[in-house]
């Protein structure tokens, strides 16, 4: 039986090998035929011959290479073999493309392909190469260039990396178990399509038992219930999440990240007072709105959840005090709501309630109240107060024609303290400069001291001062508004000066002017004026007045012709009467001039007076002309006065003027004891002056100050002032630093040869009494008088 099986196996293998040989031969022949046909097509296109088509045949498609090869030899990839390779060594394989010659090399004789370097799939997953076959002898391409791919097989050489090294997230406190907090994500650079190298699993390594993570998605969730996740107990959590490849199996690589989780606040705590009773004391003089004190409640929540407001809900001081909330400190500020009076109430009690402004989450409060209460006791301190008026202000009325001494009204103030000190009243004269009113110091009655006139001032606002007799510093004041009631004491008058003209040729009943009136009074029912002509006068036959009934009247002509030569101006008196009681009236005069008019009634010529009036200058123009004349006269007078003024002569007219002149310098000097003003030694001894003395009118410079060569300055005994001055002039002329402008040169040398010698008592050889002034007589008649004066003084002293 065993022999039969072996025979059958050998027969099957022989048939398989024959079939493979036949198939190979067919493939080669078909490739040769296709190649020949291809050449026939090319040659036919050129020379018209029918060539056979030849098709090449490669025995490879793509290769695979493992990344991160650690061997010392080149890594063998595979073998390239062409169907035209007969093994005779006439073919040459050539490689090009990505990394050809550097990363990849090919054996040109047998087509073996090798990798020369260690490759990383994460840097590049595949390489595209091109290969061709040429004849070694001729260099001709035997096949066209064909492209193939070398793919890298992945190994697990990259650990998972999270998108963030640190996550910072938050979740509301009191969240239910399983509430999503955040999702973390990690990536693996390995090939996810090959094996489990990039298949990740998430786990939590720090953060139990508060949080958990889903292994496949990386979603972090709360692991405890609302009662455990309380921000007031713990606010911050630090969770470490781990990602492991190889689907979490042993040997996989691991990456970690840190997640900082903060519990955000919810309004789950009501405010609570730190103490149940507060006590304050305030003086009774405290003004309305002044703070009394502060109370504070504490809320464990944060932000808006900790905002609260206070209100007074009970107590006998419910209407006397208010409470407001300080938005910054969340304190309750108690303020005075109404004026306090120690004599009426000496203490108050307030019940103040506090609660949140936001809606409170009562799920976790149980039976705890959402509001809190506190008691506030406020004591009132007695203060010596000034007099208090019954009203905050007074309004009084009086007729403007009221007699002096008439009472206008009265004010009343009293001492609010228990002493009930008497009060003295007075008027603040700064509010009544004209002293129209006065007040009785004892009973506060205000009366008139001078006549009043509503037309000058309809209201008078004065201030009345109340002062305690025993304590003059305790004063208070109240405003009093006095209104003057109108009395018909002013007659109506024309609203303006009226002047018109009438044509010589006119017609009777022609209106030449409309007049109106004004009245300084202010009757309650408004003004009502009546107009009429005066009862007597020759003008009644010339003009008439028609009352329009609207506080105006028209002046009409009663004749059809007027003569300018006979009468050129008419003065028409109009009586104006008001409608109030007692009735007041006045007479206004309308000036009517007679003029020559054209047919249209336009004025052409009036009398000389009218022409002068119309052509004359206005009052303002006349005043301006007068001012100009006065200014011109003043200028002329001033010019004449300056001409007459004598010009003062100068003290010295010229160098040749040798007349005696008195020059006043107005400088006494410090005398001989003043050693700061000048150096008297330099005046007496010019030889002591330095050889090189810097100038004060230029900037000092070493190069600009060469040493000056001077001749010896003659002594005071054998040198003249002229020689000294010439020497100084020569020094200044030879000085290269001298500026091109005038400058002051101080010579400081008195000279020699004076008979009187030095006037200083320091250097005088003789005393004042030894002086002989007779030599002054030899100097001329002017000095002879001086010699007589000094000689007379010496004689008096001797006698």
From TrEMBL:
Membrane-crossing residue ranges in chain numbering: 621-642
Gene Ontology process terms (BP): adherens junction organization; calcium-dependent cell-cell adhesion via plasma membrane cell adhesion molecules; cell migration; cell morphogenesis; cell-cell adhesion mediated by cadherin; cell-cell junction assembly; homophilic cell adhesion via plasma membrane adhesion molecules; morphogenesis of an epithelium
Species per Swiss-Prot/TrEMBL record: Hucho hucho
GO cellular component: adherens junction; catenin complex
Annotated localization: Cell membrane
Biological function: Cadherins are calcium-dependent cell adhesion proteins. They preferentially interact with themselves in a homophilic manner in connecting cells; cadherins may thus contribute to the sorting of heterogeneous cell types.
Domain spans labelled Cadherin: 82-162, 163-273, 274-389, 390-494, 494-605
InterPro entries according to UniProt: Cadherin, Cadherin-like_dom, Cadherin-like_sf, Cadherin_CS, Cadherin_Y-type_LIR, Catenin-bd_sf
Subcellular location, principal: membrane
Protein name: Cadherin-10
Signal peptide span: 1-19
Keyword entries, A-Z: Calcium, Cell adhesion, Cell membrane, Cleavage on pair of basic residues, Glycoprotein, Membrane, Metal-binding, Repeat, Signal, Transmembrane, Transmembrane helix
One Pfam family cited in the UniProt record for this chain: Cadherin
GO molecular function: beta-catenin binding; cadherin binding; calcium ion binding
Lineage, highest ranks first: Eukaryota, Metazoa, Chordata, Craniata, Vertebrata
Membrane topology (UniProt): Single-pass type I membrane protein
